[in-house]
Amino acid sequence: xxxxxxxxxxxxxxxxxxxxxxxxxxxxxxxxxxxxxxxQTGEISHDRFYNLCDHLKKGDALIVNDSRVLxxxxxxxxxxxxxxxxxxxxxxxxxxxxxxLCRPGKKAKxxxxxxxxxxxxxxxxxxxxxxxxxxxKFFCEGSLYTVLDExxxxxxxxxxxxxLEDKERYQTVYSRETGSAAAPxxxxxxxxxxxxxxxxxxxxxxYVTLHVGLGTFRPVKEENVxxxxxxxxxxxxxxxxxxxxxxxxxxxxxxxxxxTTSCRTLESVYKKLGKIAPDEGLTxxxxxxxxxxxxxxxxxxxxxxxESTLIMLVSAFAGYENTMRAYKTAVxxxxxxxxxxxxxxxx
Length: 347
Fold this sequence. Notes:
Layout: E1 33-37, E2 44-48, E3 61-65, E4 67-69, E5 73-78, E6 84-94, E7 97-103, E8 113-116, E9 121-128, E10 134-139, H1 144-151, E11 177-180, H2 192-200, E12 204-210, E13 233-237, H3 239-250, E14 255-258, H4 260-273, E15 279-283, E16 298-302, H5 309-318, H6 320-332, E17 343-346
Parallel strand pairs: 1-17, 3-12, 3-14, 4-11, 14-16
Antiparallel strand pairs: 1-2, 5-6, 5-8, 6-7, 7-10, 8-9, 9-10, 12-13, 13-15, 16-17
Helix pairs in contact: 5-6
């Protein structure tokens, strides 16, 4: 029996064979498998993502995260002696000032300057943080995002070891607001044609933005779950999305978050305001069993790492026993796991 007053990281462990970690995306996008879970009964059924509409009803609303992954990994050299450096941009602090990871870190002392892309971009280290990350200011002609699109590489999660041939496969088809360090991967299953079909069947699709930080991959180190601190991420819930959500609820439809990032955005706003209304800001909401949901009625998500904050969120929504049984079933049925893996619909 799960002790909600003493949740342990180890409560969320499951054994995952390495060969089930998806290294490449399927084609077409929506050909992945779909596990459907009834969170009231715990019943599990199996389908394909292209049949998602069979599990939704006219008047339901899907809320998707339109954040786009920044090509945030750049390779360059130290201005003074040409020695190699790698930067990974993590979080924008102000105009052209970012928190970064860099290696080798010993080269990146305060005041050191680096150049990238044959001089198209340069940077100076402004500060060294306690965790070893740096604060860097970037210099270029025009927009930094434009230069990064030209010279940067999309950072893939550490468990993906194969090179991605088409970098757009690590973007959702509806991505438009650049700023994430990682993709909101539940949305990778959608095709534009399927979204059009869903709309034609009376299912609304509305957008939020949450820029995913690399904290999403950072392991939970504390054994006591409540001691874990989430990194903050920037979100926007626009007026038109708030209107669709409130109309959906008023008319008896279900609000279904596509991905844990959409879920965290909606629940952050609801927790802050006591209702769904237009809002933006930073959130470090940490959802685990015992949390009372106020905004969502369903969740589409991928299969997540053992002991991660993401499987904890899923357990909070689907129920702990339902979730761990679903993951055991997914391993037995050889589902594909993580970013390029299969999907789960919890309703």
